[in-house]
Amino acid sequence: MSSAATPEQELTLPKRNFYNTEYGLLSWLLTGDHKRIAMLYLFSITFFFFVGGAMAGLIRLELLTPLPDLMASDTYNKVFTLHGIVMIFLFLVPSVPATLGNFLIPIMIGAKDLAFPKINLLSWYLYIAGASCFVISMVNGGVDTGWTFTTPLSTHYVNTNVLTTGIGVFIAGFSSVFTGLNFIVTIHRMRAPGMTWFRLPLFVWANYAASILMVLGTPVLAIAIVLVALERAFGIGVFDPTKGGDPLLFQHLFWFYSHPAVYIMILPGMGVISEVISTFSRKRVFGYAAVAFSSVAIAVFGFFVWAHHMYIMGLSNYSALVFSLLTMLVAVPSAIKIFNWSATLYKGSISFDTPMLYAFGFIGLFTIGGLTGVFLGSLGTDIHLTETYFIVAHFHFVMVGGMLMAFLAGIHFWWPKMTGRMYPEGLSKVAAVITFVGFIFTFFPQFILGYLGMPRRYHAYPPEFQVLNVLSTAGATVLGIGYLIPILYLAWSVKYGKVAGSNPWNATGLEWQIQSPPLTENFTEIPEVDHEAYDYEWLEHKNRQEVKSIG
Amino acid sequence: MDSPVIPTPPTPAVEQAAHAAHPAHLRHHFETVEQQKEAASFGMWLFLLTEIMFFGGMFAAYLIYRNWYFAAFADASKTLSIWLGGINTLVLITSSFTMAMGVWCAETRRRRGLVLSLALTILLGISFLGIKYNEYSEKFEKHHVPGASFSVETFVNPTADEMKNEKIVALAPDLAAKTEIYFSLYFAMTGMHALHMVIGIGILTVLLIKAWGGAYTNGHMTTIENFGLYWHFVDIVWIFLFPLLYLISRHV
Amino acid sequence: MTTIDEHHEHHIVSPKVYAVIFGILLLGTALTVWAAFTEMGWLNPVVAIAIACVKATLVILYFMHIRYSSTLMKLTVCAGFFTFMILIGMVMTDYISRAWGLW
Amino acid sequence: MSHISPVLWQFLEKWLANSSLFPAEASTIAPYTDALYFFLILISLIGLVIVALLVGTFSVLYNKRRHPVAVQIEGSTLLEATWTIIPLGLFLIAFVWGALLYFRIYNPPPNAMNIYIVGKQWMWKAEHPGGQHEINALHIPIGRPIQLTLISQDVFHSFSIPAFRVKREAIPGRYTTVWFQATKVGSYHLFCTQYCGTAHSAMIGEIIVQTPEDYQAWLASSVSGASLAQNGERLFATLSCNACHNANPDSRGPSLANVYGSKLQLVTGGSVQVDDGYLRDAILNPSMHVTAGYAPIMPTYQGQISEEGIISLVEYIKTLDSNYRVQQTLNTTEIQNQKQAPATAPGTTVKP
Q: A474 vs A60, A297, D32, CA distance in Å?
């Protein structure tokens, strides 16, 4: 796909771009450039994704047979704990915001950088520091509390590296606070002239909403973890039932962050999907305002529903009613988004490039993931389904099927912008399909397992569950391959890929109107925005002008 | 599209000409000094929001346990000295005032005033911590620090205790044990607050040295203003901690 | 440019205002200690919190210049306290209603 | 299939035949849960099909080759309102239906038979009122509502019986309850579903549903000592509870006759309904639960009685229906002590 406006022979990489203004390791480690920080994040996130993925592989391999035969129970518990911690704190939470968001938000709003470049770099260092804590705890023998750090298990009953891991979560949490803070300030303060709120790309809206959650939610997790650490170190008794504390209070504080955290994870992904769907159907997103506001609505309602993780944990039943009702309300904005995306295709001019395939995958899997959320939000069915593989399947459909698909859609969509080169198209489409099929095979059987009652975090299980588990493990193999292929061809494309040109998809965002890879300063002069987001007529007009001026 | 990468110096917009920027203070990615300033203070406020939520978790815990174990909380609160707490409140409010004056000096470009205000603020901050240290060490002596050495003796047998606080009502051992939760929250909340003070004093020292050298009184006082926000926030936390921890049911 | 006012002229608060606020804060501290020693029944904690809220509001409005800041800043501060209230309020729905009955 | 060896084929066949796709419906609640479950599946399928149809049809109709120029459409308030309100309505139905089911599962009928469950790392201990004691198993009769009162002595556990569609967490320091009525004889899985440490996946057991006759036979065959109430009575005496709670007119503690289920006036001014949880709290944190008219002199038993001991005491207090019965306590206990060896009775384990 090359831009119709640019003849083939002109496609060479721009002489100056943000990669070659400075050289050397230090120029990367001390950079203030949001694009370079985004690339740093991309590397570290990908690395930890494969660490977490390897853990997932071990889990699935263990569950191939009903017997606890591959590893000891302790090891298994440590593996799934680290799988959760690594995937959530080191991959899902920072994935889209810290890589794509970091790279694109300043460009999309017409700014030269994020508001606080040094804090942006600090975020990355905090991320690495947090990750190091996890690695240290892993090397020292691991931690087996589950990523949820349930008290009093984490405070009194396990002998593993809870403190180190807790410090890691605390630090990684502040990394995400600073990213969110930076985004909010940037989006409020740094928009180019003419870039009003309702001209912002939906990706920016989504990241804005997620940033609000990061800034306001994460500190509550931080304090919960601090109290767990104090409880462990000094026995302060705040969560200890024998001293009069309430272990459920920890659940409240923990989920006050950790439920909104799932929206931190999914919202930026939804932003990516809005961009991709619009670009490849050559149409303005259907009901722009509704999609934008639904992001904000999800962010706001996201704070009101956390206790639906605690229905059977001894939450007051009256409270459970309230939280169940609010949970139903938060499902609505997601439904709006799905329908709006579908309607965007109507009378579009759809092409099926790789990002679009991933976006279709997202819509399908996220719809299933979202709807099964209703099963769990509804009090009666939650009793049977919670803490089983149903919930595992549900959040993997949303997080992996939703978020990861969106992340891959975004990476494939903006790869030409980030590197200036295209990846092999046929292969990438094959990878997208493999991922989708592998995903369905891995996680769909887990819904059935869940209704059968197979508990999550089980090392061994009754033999009659084996067939479905074998299916799931087989699917996981396919899924693993699906994730490995992009890494290979994307790495290949950095050197050998076809030069993409500045706007290979003919997209309307400001980021596509500058060279790829961009200059360190992004824009030679700050653009005056005079058109709405996704204005394809404006783009066509602009392209015609350019052809004329060149001719 | 392939124009040279050398950043063109930002041209101040016409309407901001009055603020005509000293280029050294305007970072390359901002258009105007005003924009940079607003961004900085907005960022600071967002950071303070995270601080609100950080303390919020502890306030929630406090609220719950205070309602559950009110008698224990009331009793334990009486072991704190209102004098020390009250003086500390005054000290902190005064330091907030000197900080505000420091901001004013920076805004009106009074170097000596700024240096004096910052020095006073540091001094007051340190005296706050000194008094706090006094209070803490008393808790260690009386075995009121939660953990292995915690003892409920004071509350079970208030008359036997050396402390001359007749107001402590003797509690049954099971209820007296709940004072540990009070002290846990006391140490967690005041400890976190003190930690913020320590960090604040550290930053203040740096600011003081820079202000001595003439920084911040040259029209670029954003750093001072933002630090002021932080310091006032720490003050606000204490404004709530004082009545909540020291003044539970003193009238009985 | 946008629906809410995001930019604002810089306002220098005069020392006189600071001094007045400082005075009120000192008075408030004295008042809250006095109130704690006065028997008011269930009003005691309410009064203590109310005084603290007034003091905090004064600090925010004057020492922290929110009174002279843009609407955006005012909204930001409100958003912080709103979220804080959600945390407290929604946690309390559980703790208050636990005592209501068998379930 | 001829190239697959017959042994492997047989294995496959057996393997597939023994695998399950849908859990047994073995309680009165199960059909209700399944009904809601199928309703939700139906909604999900409809939603999924609509989305798939929209995306699929548009992909075919408006793909680039067939439809080279897109028609720009802003949006449609009417359509958007439709797909806001219809899902909202459906979700609200799911909420109301789910809430009703929740009431059903967590509101035991008054005639339910109570069995105590104590969870610990990593086993389930069941205490039948008759003194029968089981580990990682629970025998219950068919056709009779059974209420479980759960507690954990260490971390959170979760008592899950998929065939009954019920589940409840065993919380440290607090009783929770759940009830069910089995409808099919058989043996069903019992899982701990809340992650509880190393051997979490070994904290499993069996729910054995029997006909009333078999159940009676099992009860008779597995009496291992005194009943829970008798154990509690002995504990009541050994802990000298009856020194104060002796129902004499000048006693220092309130009489416990008929206290269970009554409304108690407390010194703090409030009144409270006496249930299992209240009795437990009153034993462990007595000074926070002082009956009006009495002094807060009762010592705490925190750390002195095991959870099973507290359960026995609670069971015993439930049986106290007259002052005469209370005064008999010591006598019967002595008789009990003569009659059997106390070691077999699990409820009386008194920690040093």
A: 9, 39, 34
